[in-house]
Write a structure and sequence with these properties.
By secondary structure, the protein is of the alpha/beta class. The chain has ten helices and nine strands. The protein has one domain: NAD(P)-binding Rossmann-like Domain (Rossmann fold), CATH 3.40.50. α2 packs across α8, α4 packs parallel to α6 and α5 packs parallel to α7. The protein starts with a helix and ends with a helix. The structure holds NADP nicotinamide-adenine-dinucleotide phosphate. NADP nicotinamide-adenine-dinucleotide phosphate binds next to α2.
Amino acid sequence: MKHSFLSFLIFLFIIYYVSTKFINTAPIINETTKICLVTGASSGIGEQLSKCMIKKGWKVIGIARNFEKLQDIQKEVGSNNFITYKCNISDFEQIKKVSQEIKTNNLKPTLFFLNAGTGDIEAKNKISVESHKKTFDTNYFGTIGFVQEWIDSLKELGGGTFVATSSVLFFYALPETAAYSASKAAINMCFQSLRLKYIDENIGFVIALPGPVDTPMLKNGQNLPFKQTAKKCAQYMVDQTFNRSNQIEPAWFYSAILRLLNWIPDRWVLKVVK
Ligand SMILES: NC(=O)c1ccc[n+]([C@@H]2O[C@H](COP(=O)([O-])OP(=O)(O)OC[C@H]3O[C@@H](n4cnc5c(N)ncnc54)[C@H](OP(=O)(O)O)[C@@H]3O)[C@@H](O)[C@H]2O)c1
C-alpha cells in the first residue's frame, strides 16, 4: 500500500516534469536582433531584468515614467546597452507613440518583459471602482497595449516572446488586494488564451508569478518571511524564460502556500493571514 502510493507520487512527478520540460514549452527565444524591451525598468524587478539581459549581451529598451531614474541606470550600464524611453503605460496613446518612436529608430525587440505594475493595499471596508480602473489601466491594459503594438512586428521577425509580471496573488486573493489580484488574474487568463491563439506564429506568452520581492512596491510587506531580492527574482525570470517555461514561479514557497489556501475554510485563512 505504502509502495503503491509512493509509485503513484513518482508517476505524477514524472508526468509533471515531462509536460513542463518537453511538451508544454514556450517557443525558443528569437535572438536575431538581441534587443529586448522592459517596462518598469526604472526600479525593482524591471531594473534588475534590464541588467540581467545586458549581462547576457542584449540591448535593452527601458521604459518608465521617471526619466531621471532611467538615465541614472543608463549612466551605470552604458548608453549603448540601455536605451531609455519615457512612457506612462496606463495611457494607450503614449504606448502607441513610444512604440512608433522605437520603430522609427529601427529598434526591433523580440523579447518583451511587460513588468511595470502598480498596487496599493486597499482601504478597509471600502470598494472603489476608481481604484480598480486605475489598477487595470496599468497592470492589464498597460500590458496588452504593448502586445497590440508589437505583435505584427514579431510575426515579421519570425517570432518572439512576451513575458508578463503577474503575482502569486493570482493563486489566492488576500483581503485588501482585490483590484491588484483581479488585474493579475486577468493578465494570466489573457496570456493563456493568446498563447494558444499564436502557437503557430512562434510567439510565446509567458507568465511570471513572483512572491514578495524587496522593492519599493512592497513597502507594506517588509515583515514577510522569505522575501526575495529583486536581483534574484529577475535572474530566475530570465533563466526560466530562456528555458522556455510558460509559467515562471520564482517563489516556490508562496506559490505552494497560496495554492493550498484554496483548500482551507475562509475563516481559517483569515486567521492565518491576520
Ligand atoms: N514587489 C513584489 O513583492 C511583487 C510581487 C509580485 C509581483 N510584483 C510585480 O512586479 C512588477 C514590478 O514591481 P516591483 O516590485 O519591481 O515594484 P517597483 O520597484 O515599484 O517598480 C514598479 C515599476 O513599474 C513602473 N510603473 C508603474 N506604473 C507605471 C506606469 N503607469 N507607466 C510606466 N511605468 C510604470 C515604475 O516606474 P515609474 O514609477 O518610473 O513609472 C517602476 O519602474 C509589478 O508588475 C508588480 O505587480 C511585485
